[in-house]
Design brief:
heterodimer; A: alpha+beta; Ubiquitin-like (UB roll); five-stranded mixed β-sheet; 31% strand; B: 294 residues; alpha+beta; paralog of FGE (formylglycine-generating enzyme); three-stranded antiparallel β-sheet; 8 helices; 11 strands
């Protein structure tokens, strides 16, 4: 399993960390959206593919947009999703 | 270009005192107290005298820069800018500082007087260099917004919705994201994703800071020069905010999109400096006092 961390700006007082099965980054994001449908519109486009506007860090390593399609997330790692405008 | 005011400098406690975090926790607003933890603990900052733009940089002023240099913004190079659409944030083709909704600006009087938006960190730095100025540091920005004494908003501690361009100016008191969305739905159905900016200085002088700077609360988010960093490593704050420390640049002042809580003088936000911009983010410039007046 991997841990996905979302911003409190998204979760607004609710749980912000989620466990999802490991796999490709695409699979992790899609699984999170399926398990947590409240955040689907923030994570996936209308056809169910991951949106690209947010930044993704895997164990604190930044994953550039161009590398996301082939990025894999190993068991035990933490994926942090951060909007380009953070805080507030 | 770019009227400036001289800020005398001084020593002050940057950030929010404990009572502000307690107050936020008790207010009827959407965010947990921890969300504001990056505003604390306060730390002592000494700022030398400097010059600060009285207003955010306007569309008209940015046009002068572009006309003189041929500069192309990141949004123009990428072919899109971020707007809040009918559903959520989206990268909208054609949305740039000239066409902030992705379409030509129509029906907005004197739009050249509005603060420029769809400005990335690099776009702001480029303009400042051309103008012989620089972006303010975070400490300079906060000092210009509230002086050396603490206050929640530039005019004082009492919220006054008519003194700043926020969502609550347009919609009335807002308490929840759902209320905000209902307001935005009505705006979007009428104008599309057109930013609800206002002419710079329109909320002055009553909404101005003690130093005479306008639009320090709301209108547009403003890039600062400072790299994001916690005031103290012991600060309890959101995990995603810890991630941006050392990576993003500070953004201050909140915008027309925000509630009263996001336009406070000590409120901190952070922006991705790698070319990102949106339809509510602009900037103002500063200059060292030693370099003389504007």
């Amino acid at each position: 399993m991997v841990t996905v961390v979302l911003s409190s700006a998204w979760t607004q007082g609710r749980r912000s960390e989620f466990e999802v099965a490991e796999g490709s980054l695409r699979e992790v994001l899609r699984a999170l959206a399926e398990n947590q449908p409240d955040y689907r519109h923030r994570l996936l486009d209308g056809s169910g593919e991951p949106l690209e506007y947010f930044n993704v860090y895997v164990d604190d390593e930044f994953i550039p947009r161009r590398d996301r399609s082939r990025a894999r997330v190993r068991p035990g790692t933490t994926v942090t999703i951060v909007p380009p405008l953070a805080g507030g | 270009m770019g009227e400036m005011v001289r800020i005398p400098g001084g020593t002050f406690r940057q950030g929010s005192p404990p009572w502000v975090l307690d107050w936020l926790e008790g207010e009827d607003q959407a965010f947990p107290g921890k969300w504001f933890g990056d505003e604390a603990p306060q730390r002592t900052e000494t700022v030398a005298p400097f010059w600060m733009d009285r207003y955010p940089v306007t569309v008209g002023e940015y046009a002068e820069f572009v006309d003189a240099t041929g500069y192309r913004t990141d949004a123009e190079r990428l072919g899109h800018g971020m707007v809040y659409g009918s559903r959520y944030w989206e990268e909208r083709p054609g949305a740039t500082w000239r066409t902030p909704s992705g379409e030509p600006v129509v029906g907005v009087e004197d739009y050249h007087r509005h603060p420029v938006v769809h400005i990335s960190f690099g776009d702001a730095v480029a303009y400042a260099g051309w103008a012989g100025k620089r972006l303010p540091t975070e400490a300079e920005w906060e000092l210009a917004a509230r002086g050396t004494g603490f206050r929640l908003w530039p005019w004082g501690d009492d919220w006054k919705p008519d003194l700043a361009n926020t969502a609550e100016y347009h919609a009335g008191a807002l308490r929840s994201p759902d209320q905000w969305r209902r307001w935005w739905d009505t705006v979007h159905s009428r104008t599309g994703p057109m930013p609800q900016t206002s002419g710079v200085g329109d909320f002055g002088p009553d909404g101005d800071s003690v130093h005479g700077c306008s639009d320090m609360a709301g209108n547009v988010y403003e890039w600062n020069a400072t790299l994001a960093g916690l005031y103290d490593e012991s600060a309890e704050c959101d995990a995603t905010l810890r991630t941006v420390m050392g990576r993003y640049r500070v953004i201050r002042g909140g915008s027309w999109m925000n509630f009263r809580y996001q336009v406070r003088c000590s409120e901190r936000m952070y922006g991705d400096p790698g070319g990102w911009s949106n339809f509510a983010t602009g900037f103002r410039c500063a200059r060292d006092a030693e370099e003389g007046g504007p």
